[in-house]
Every structure is written in C-alpha cells, then in structure tokens.
Write a structure and sequence with these properties.
Layout: H1 4-29, H2 45-73, H3 86-89, H4 94-112, H5 119-141, H6 150-154, H7 159-181
Helix pairs in contact: 1-2, 2-4, 2-5, 2-7, 4-5, 5-7
Amino acid sequence: MIDTHARTESAFPEATLIMGASLFIALAAQFRVQLPFSPVPITAQTLAVLLTGALLGAKRGSSAVLLYLLEGLLGLPVFAGASSGLASLFGPTGGYLVGFAGGAYITGMLMERGWSQQLGTSFAALALGNVLIYACGLSWLTMFASKEVVLSLGLWPFIPGDFFKLICATAALFAGSQARKEDII
C-alpha cells in the first residue's frame, strides 16, 4: 500500500520552496529601469534567477522559473513592469525570460557538482548561467532588431550591472555557506 500522506508531507516543502522562489523572481522583475534606447529593461531578475538556481539546485530552480513563466502566461503581473501574457513572452525580451530556466538549471547543476565550495567556482557557475540567459535573449532579440545593433540593445549596457549582481550573489552565497559551516544559521 502506498502511503500518500508521507508523499504529501514531503511534497509540501518542495512546492513551497518552488512557489516562494517564483515569487522572489516576480518581485525582482519589478525593480526595473527602462533604457530609452533598448526594449530590454534593467531588472533584478537575473540576480533572483541565478540565486534560485544556486540555492535550490537544477531541478527545483528551473521549476521555479517555469512556474514564474506560467504565472505570467496566465495573466499574473509578474514580468518586468507588472506585465504578463503572450505579448511579453513573445516580445523582444521573451528570449531572456525563457533563458532564465536554462540559467537557473545550469547554475544549480554546477553548484550541485561542487562548484559552490569555493568563491571562484561559485562566481563561475553564476556567470555561466548568466551567459546562457544572454545567449537565449540575444538570439531572440535578433528577430526584433538587426544583428548590427542587437549587442548594443541587449548586451553591452547590461554587463556592468550584471557583473555587480554576480559579485553580490557570489558574496551572499559564500557568506551563507560560511555561516552554515560555523553553525550560525
């Protein structure tokens, strides 16, 4: 006989983590600065997505992003600027949104494989997740802008801020790791 009560008890914390992470990403999307020359806004989403992957792992992290995308598709105002729907997902920033799932997955996978043990490898795992987000976003953006200007619209203006977010995420992860080692948390 299958114990459905035990399965439900173990599934509840998992679902809570995933839902909480999707909310974290949605909140981060609202910290938005619209650049006058680009359809891509500056947000805190990449920070939230990469931290989600790093903290929850590949499967739960990417599940949280997929839940976030589903919430947006269903009309909840979770995307940047409280937007939602198919127009957001299939607009100029849609590739970045879809790339979030891959970014969370690769970051989580690398962290699960021990990259979280050192500062440098933690930073590298987060950076690789960010590169995947850029790759998806930029390739999608080429459907809306010429290849000659796509890097000016969707990459170069974001590198300094994303570098800062990567440093913040790495520092937070490393501080949390050290606190756990010292039984502070």
